[in-house]
Amino acid sequence: MSRPSTDAGFDTVIVVDWSARSQPSPAAPTADAIFMAVSHGPGTEPRVSYHRTRDAATQALVVHISAALDAGRRLLAGFDFPFGYPRGFARALTGGDDPLVLWQALSARIEDAADNANNRFRVATDLNRLFPGLGPFWGCPPSQANPDLPERGSLRHGHGLPERREVERRLPRAQPCWKLYTTGAVGSQVLLGLPRLNHLRERFGTAISVSPFQPPVTPIVLAEVYPSLLHRLVTARRRTGEILDAAQVRVLAQALHALPPAALTGMLAEGDTEEGWILGLGHDRLLLEPASCTS
User: DSSP H helical segments within the chain, as ranges?
Assistant: First the structure.
């Protein structure tokens, strides 16, 4: 296995729309499930695949990463959920501010079976008990509600943590990571996504780095993305009958791969090294310009 040069950028770009479903998604592709777009070159059409479970998606990622490493190719994988929490959460849980140690701590608590059955609401309840007052996590089905996990965010009080990361303050339409349930919730994706990424880090070791927590100079780089950054381009390029999630990952994968390598590397190095960052935030025009020249 040869180590690829970072000068030419990435040979493969993957963008993943994650899901926190507690059962396998339907056999036929449907919204609010896992879609994965894989681009093998600037100007090429990404291939989009549908995955019914997080386990199946993780296995597919292992195959893509292994193939890239065996071929001496670089791979960027973007995921549409936060890679960190507002400042102070990691320290309360781990005693330090390292977000990758936090990933390990969450992995030790989360149970996520091959059929998507998981314990995320119980974990959120236990995490809330680490803080005074009530919160910060909220949102659950009525059957999961308990005195330490409120159904509504307005019921929280006195937990002492910020509501949003800095990146979400700059992009208000992005949901805060404490919300676990109902429309737009991303918190469950975080609780069930970070342990999966931690598994990839454990499996591939120093071949993987995580933006913006580590320098993006490894063969495999993981990054947080927000496909709605390109909502106008997605709207323009969405095909008749195409599921929005599938269109978003396809268009974003193509846009990222069309960037000049130095520009993409610079974006990967930006952001808060405790809370995380959305790749490309503030570079909408640069993302749109090369993408507009591809078909």
Answer: 54-71, 89-94, 99-109, 120-128, 166-170, 187-204, 231-237, 244-258, 261-268, 284-292
- Give me the half-sphere count of Cα atoms (radius 13 Å) on the Cβ side of residue 248: 21
Give the single-character DSSP code of 7: T
**pLDDT string in tens for the chain (295-residue length):** 455 655 669 999 999 999 999 999 999 999 999 999 999 998 889 999 999 999 999 999 999 999 999 999 999 999 999 999 999 999 999 999 999 999 999 999 999 999 999 999 999 999 999 999 999 999 999 889 899 999 999 999 999 999 999 999 999 999 999 999 988 899 999 999 999 999 999 999 999 999 999 999 999 999 999 999 999 999 999 999 999 999 999 999 999 999 999 999 999 999 999 999 999 999 988 888 765 555 4
| Domains of the chain (ranges, CATH numbers) | 12-82+189-292 (3.30.420), 89-97+112-188 (no CATH)
